Amino acid sequence: MPMNFETVEVTTDLLIIGGGMGACGAAVEASYWGKKHGVKVTLVDKASMPRSGAVGMGLSAINLYVGLAEGKNTVEDYIKYVKYDLMGVARDDLVANIARHVDSSVHLFEQWGLPLWKDDDGNYVHEGRWQLMISGESYKVIVAEAAKNALGDENIYERVFITEPLIIDGKCVGAVGFSVRENKYYVFKAKAVMCAMGGTVGVFKPKSTGEGCGRSWYPPFSTGSSAYFTMKAGAEMTCQEVRFVPIRFKDAYGPVGAWFLLFKSRATNAAGENYMQTRKDELLNWGKYGAAIPQPANLRNHLGLLEIKEGKGPLMMRTEEAIANLAKQYEGDEKAFKKKMKTLENEAWEDFLDMTISQALLWAATNVEPEVRPSEINATEPYFISSHSGASGAWVSGPEDLSAGTDYFWGYAQMTTVPGLFAAGDATGACAHKFSSGTHAEGRIAGKSAVKYILDHNTQTEIPEEMVAKMKEVIFQPLALFEEHKNFSTDENVNPNYIIPKQYMFRLQKIMDEYVGGVSSNFSTNKASLDRAAELLVFLKEDGEKLAARDLYELLRVWENKHRFWQAEAHLRAVAFREETRWPGYYFRTDYPTLQEEDWLCFVNMKWDPIKDEWSVFKRPVLNLFNID
Ligand code: SFD
Ligand code: AMP
């Protein structure tokens, strides 16, 4: 591997990092406002925008559409839904801001060519109260095309992996990274930076090991860059304990939403019992949240996991029963019945073909006919995704009209506590259930807000040459380390002088799985286990200095794992700090097994101090800005 890397400097006004849903939203909006004021907007993505990020494979539903113009729901309805689903812990202002803007993102998607399902009267087909059905295999291609058109090709850098923020005097003034294809080191200098690098997968040992290794529900290429970037910049973080454990079709991770909501399916234990019914008394143990409709996602998991614990599994999605129920009204008219069955069969397969193709392959490979027999579902490994039903991310300012005068507001909507650093999507915390559409809307809000910040602070900060030169050395050091020691052993995977990224990742996953409430510890943990994990993570962090890379591809893996590590450490610290169990079904503190509203109905926030290299973890109150009860 040649060691000469050209340094490429890019000077811009707004740097958008990431090319996913949040970044594409920011690109469209910031370009619009930027053009009016001569603000230059640049985007950098580690992959190729038309297929990058979580929506790369496509989606079969838009999970957030409020329908304000149709009078379907109010902003307050949505805040209530989100807050109860997250067991009381959510930011009213951020959720409201997304809710009031999300419909316009959906209308833009339709205008750009995304096929939304329509009924005979031309209305959107709802999957559930908040969700719309789409034929969304090309969803990301369509959204990325609009973003690219807005930005112009000359302002887009693809296949460049961002490793570090540039921080001067506590302000974010750019980022550095490297090309994953060419020998190039990139230095982006900017007046404001917007972080939208998605969530984190691979912190916990996945269920899919061995031949299925790498398969996950959320994309394996979401590797914690948002969390790392914001933490490393010194931003206050929130809800780092609020992981997400989805229920999915077993082994290929097919989503369940369409089955529960569109097809109105039941999930049962192996004996055919509906555990949401038979175990409904357990919901009484979880305060007012247990009585919410729909029941919070973690409580639905919790009841299913209790079945498994008592040996009543596997859990089954009763697809055959759901299809039969939907077709029942056509019985007696053979032609109409056949037609309906065909439509339902198409819809069932399209649900997977649009967004989790491997589930359709697994069904085909194992002769599953959903109209004939049920399919197994189970809880997956934990993920960090604040755009779905998790909540971990940066603590950002709310909009002035909703939160001025409270602790939720400090000047520019979506700005983190680091001046000049904005965030959206999986990068922001405490505003769950925004999904693809809400993330796009949040990106648009952040893009517009960042342009305003730039107009108010219109100076390019000088970045010392030595600083970027030192960062270059650190970024490429794993290649040099490998070259230096590669001949020490006969197998280059095994060497006392370095560790390869895969080994490092497996070690991280084993620690988190066994001690911090992963699959093998039944999502349970306690203080003694967390202390042990903390001890082992110190050794792992030390060994992280010895990560080695054979080529650019492995260098990418090195940095992805360094990023993952920070998400893991933040999670561990937050789980250890919160002395209660608030999200059973996501994780269980066996030493504090109950909900404690008085002491713990609050945010757990934290911050890494870049100067002292120290963490602080602390509480912040949950404010009630809207009357939702
Ligand atoms: O139902 C760097 N999601 C669903 N949303 C819906 O609206 N409907 C659904 O049907 C959804 N389902 C679903 C979903 C996701 C997945 C994977 C499946 C099914 C199988 C959720 C949405 O996809 C999600 O909410 C948004 O995409 C989040 O947007 P954002 O912008 O926060 O993340 P991203 O889109 O993944 O983009 C991240 C970008 O960052 C880049 N990147 N670039 C430079 N340097 C680095 N170091 C970087 N690290 C990452 C990525 O390349 C990418 O461009 S259902 O199952 O929930
Ligand atoms: P999923 O396929 O699990 O990602 O879910 C897609 C959408 O349906 C999300 O908005 C979920 O919150 C919602 N959802 C999934 N399962 C249920 C359920 N059993 N009850 C209510 N909403 C659900």
Walk me through this protein's architecture:
The chain is an alpha/beta fold and 629 residues long. The protein folds into 3 domains: 6-59 and 136-243 and 383-456, FAD/NAD(P)-binding domain (3-Layer(bba) Sandwich), CATH 3.50.50; 251-379, Flavocytochrome C3, Chain A, domain 1 (Alpha-Beta Complex); 468-600, Fumarate reductase/succinate dehydrogenase flavoprotein-like, C-terminal domain (Methane Monooxygenase Hydroxylase, Chain G, domain 1). Helices cover 39% and strands 15% of the residues. It has 18 helices and 21 strands. The protein has helices spanning 21-37, 75-85, 92-112, 139-151, 225-232, 257-262, 275-278, 297-309, 319-327, 334-355, 357-365, 400-403, 435-456, 465-485, 501-515, 527-544, 552-577, 597-600, and strands at 6-11, 14-17, 41-45, 59-62, 132-136, 156-158, 160-168, 171-179, 184-189, 192-195, 237-238, 247-249, 267-268, 315-317, 375-379, 393-394, 421-423, 524-525, 588-589, 602-609, 614-621. The chain has a 5-stranded parallel sheet, with helices on both faces. Strands 1-9-8-7 form a 4-stranded mixed sheet, sandwiched between helices. Helix 16 packs antiparallel against helix 17. The longest helix has 26 residues, at 552-577. The protein is globular and about 80 Å long. It binds ligand SFD and adenosine monophosphate. Residues 17-23, 44-47, 52-55, 59-63, 161-162, 177, 196-198, 217-219, 222, 225, 255, 257, 355-356, 387-388, 425-426, 435-437, 439 line the site of ligand SFD.
